[in-house]
Design brief:
Length: 226
C-alpha cells in the first residue's frame, strides 16, 4: 500500500488442493475486479472495500461456490478409514496399538524404523508363547473378516473384546519381563542398538514407548508395574 492509500494489483495464486478451491475463486474474482478498476496498476483502498463487499455478498459467485464446496471440504478433513487386511501381520499390528500415535506424522515421535528394536524385546518376553498369541490373534481376525468382509477396519478389530484380551495377556507378560533384571537389560540393549540406517532410538523415544505400554497395561487392568 502506498502513502496515498493505494495498493498494487497482484496476480492471483490458486491452490491445487481441493479444499482451497473457494480460496482460489475468491482471489480470481478480486483480482479480476481489481484489474478492471485499477488505474496505472493501482487501486484505491475504498475501491478494494467495495470489491470485497461485492464478492462476499449473498448470491455472489463466491457464496455459491462456498455452499457447493462445503461438503467436499468436510469429507476431505474426515479421517480415512483404515481397512484391515490379512496381508498384514495382525499380531504385530496389535502389539503396536498402545503407541501407534507415536508412529504418525511427517516426523514421527518414534519412527517405524525402530519397531524391530521393540519387537525384539517382545519376542524375548514372550518366548514360545508368542506363537500361541500370534495364532490366536489371526483366528480372531479371520472370524471378524468373515463377519465384516471388506468393511473390517483396524479400529473394529482393536476394539473387539477378544483382541483386547490377547493384548492384555501380552502386556502382562511384557511388563513382568521388564520388571526383571534380564528384561531391563534387554530393553536398554535393544533400544540402544543401531538399525540398518545407522540410527538408534533416543532414551526419550524409548521412554515414550514404555510410558504408552504402561498406561495401556493399566487401562486393561494389568497389575505389573515397571
Amino acid at each position: 500500500m502506498s502513502a496515498e492509500g493505494n495498493v498494487a494489483v497482484a496476480e492471483p495464486v490458486a491452490s491445487p488442493q481441493a479444499c482451497f478451491d473457494v480460496l482460489g475463486l475468491f482471489s480470481e474474482l478480486v483480482a479480476t475486479l481489481a484489474s478492471e478498476r485499477a488505474r496505472d496498476g493501482q487501486i484505491s483502498l475504498d475501491e478494494v472495500y467495495r470489491i470485497l463487499a461485492l464478492v462476499r455478498g449473498a448470491g455472489s459467485p463466491l457464496s455459491r461456490a462456498m455452499a457447493a464446496q462445503e461438503g467436499k471440504c468436510r469429507h476431505s478433513f474426515k479421517p480415512a478409514v483404515r481397512h484391515a487386511s490379512s496381508r498384514n501381520d495382525v499380531f504385530r499390528r496389535l502389539l503396536v496399538r498402545p503407541f501407534e500415535t507415536l508412529l504418525e506424522g511427517e516426523v514421527p515421535a518414534f519412527p517405524r524404523g525402530f519397531l524391530p528394536h521393540y519387537f525384539e524385546v517382545v519376542d524375548a518376553a514372550l518366548g514360545e508363547r508368542g506363537k500361541q498369541y500370534d495364532q490366536r490373534a489371526r483366528e480372531i481376525f479371520q472370524d471378524m473378516l468373515v463377519s465384516h468382509g471388506n468393511d473390517l477396519a483396524w479400529e473394529i478389530f482393536f476394539a473387539d473384546a477378544r483382541a483386547r484380551a490377547v493384548l492384555s495377556r501380552v502386556l502382562d507378560r511384557l511388563m513382568r519381563y521388564l520388571e526383571s533384571p534380564a528384561g531391563q537389560w534387554a530393553w536398554l540393549t535393544c533400544m540402544g542398538r543401531v538399525n540398518v540406517d545407522g540410527a538408534r532410538p533416543s532414551s526419550a523415544q524409548a521412554d515414550m514407548v514404555l510410558a504408552a505400554l504402561r498406561s495401556t497395561a493399566t487401562a486393561l487392568g494389568v497389575t505389573a508395574k515397571v
